[in-house]
Amino acid sequence: MSLSKKIVMLGHFGVGKTSLVRRFVDSVFSEDYLVTLGVHVKKKEVEIDGEKITLILWDIEGNTSISKARASYLAGSHGFLYVFDVTRPETFQNLAEEMDFLKENYSKIPVAVVGNKSDLITSEHVEDFFKQEPFKDCEFTSAKEGDNVENVFLKITKQLR
Amino acid sequence: MVEEDRLQLLRDILLIDDREVAHAINQRIEKISETLEKQEKLSEKVNPIIEDRLKVFVSEIPTSLGPVITQTLKDEIENSKERVVEALYPIMGKMIKRYIQNEIKLLSETMNKKVNDTFSVNSFKRKLRAKFTGVKESDLLLTELDAPTISEVFIIQKGSGILLGNHSNTATVDKDMISGMLTAIKSFVEDAFEGGTQNLEAIEYELYTIHIQNFHTYYIAVVISGSYSRSFENKLENKLLKLSKSLSPQISILTKEAIDDILKTHF
Fold this sequence. Notes:
The complex is a heterodimer of chains A (about 160) and B (about 270).
Chain A: E1 3-11, H1 17-26, E2 39-48, E3 51-60, H2 71-74, E4 79-85, H3 95-105, E5 111-116, H4 123-129, E6 139-140, H5 149-160
Parallel strand pairs in A: 1-3, 1-4, 4-5, 5-6
Antiparallel strand pairs in A: 2-3
Chain B: H1 3-37, H2 39-64, H3 66-79, H4 81-117, H5 121-133, H6 137-145, E1 149-157, E2 163-168, H7 175-192, E3 202-205, E4 208-214, E5 218-225, H8 230-247, H9 256-266
Helix pairs in contact in B: 1-2, 4-6
Organism (chain B): Ulvibacter litoralis
Protein name (chain B): Cell envelope biogenesis protein OmpA
InterPro entries (chain A): P-loop_NTPase, Small_GTP-bd, Small_GTPase
């Protein structure tokens, strides 16, 4: 028997939501940027402590704010993965407000915050800039190199049970 | 002879030939001028030459211009496919429509012949139905030939789009992804057209129809092939309502396998 859980990818345009999903599900990466229109659904089965969980990943189109995302796409979610681009401040400067919005409207749903494209900055920069609030619990990934991608998805999956 | 006469005689002896030549040249120039200025005379001279050159040119078109024209056309089609399609679409559409109409007519005639020649119980029943309903027997036969069949049934959780159970007569692509995308499409349509509490009830694609019946926490999507008639829709709706009676009270506690088994008994 396998449990199914819906995870919705959130974040601005071009932060790498689709790339993260593709890296996690298909183990591939492409430099070509194709903007996601509407939603793209992907699936991956993972095993946590001997239990099989089917993750249904909703890779929705990017939005400057979660409040602008189609509410029906977020309905029935079991977890959110909020992705920002570590090289583009406009994708994380309103992170605190975005987290407040999720707390207010989806209080029971776990959220993982992910800073993607970590291959484009130095680890010192990550240490210096992203160790303060609201980035304290952020995970940093590189969809291009595959760094930490699987770990991020497995971490949120553990919170879904 | 005086000196003057002698000089004239000498002039005549020396210049007589040149004068004749000059006179002849003058005459020739006048004739050429006349030919050039009068169209009829010019045509007489030039037309045969042009005709000959044209004949040669036409005979050489396939070898000299053929490849160039072909390549130009190929490039044009390649570079402006949409324009070519736009230009051809109305013509092709009409041709296809005419072809299909003709084929249907032929089919109908063949069936009529078959019906008239057959004396089976079914044909007797059909004849009776046709008589009482007023529907042509050939139309009834056509409906029988293209009877709707249920290919797949999906029980999908509302909102999340998670597949709760399914029954399938055919092998299709990943069912979890189908239910996810189906829910996404449904959500989009219901949002986009500001239907409020209205729900998407059917999706048609080529030879298939997806009938969607909504319940409180889940919806049922049924993939049907063949002619999806109103009477079939009514029957299907009743069947799904019956299914929901046994499913709804326990849907939150049933496993996917249990729901699959329930579907098996209904379809």
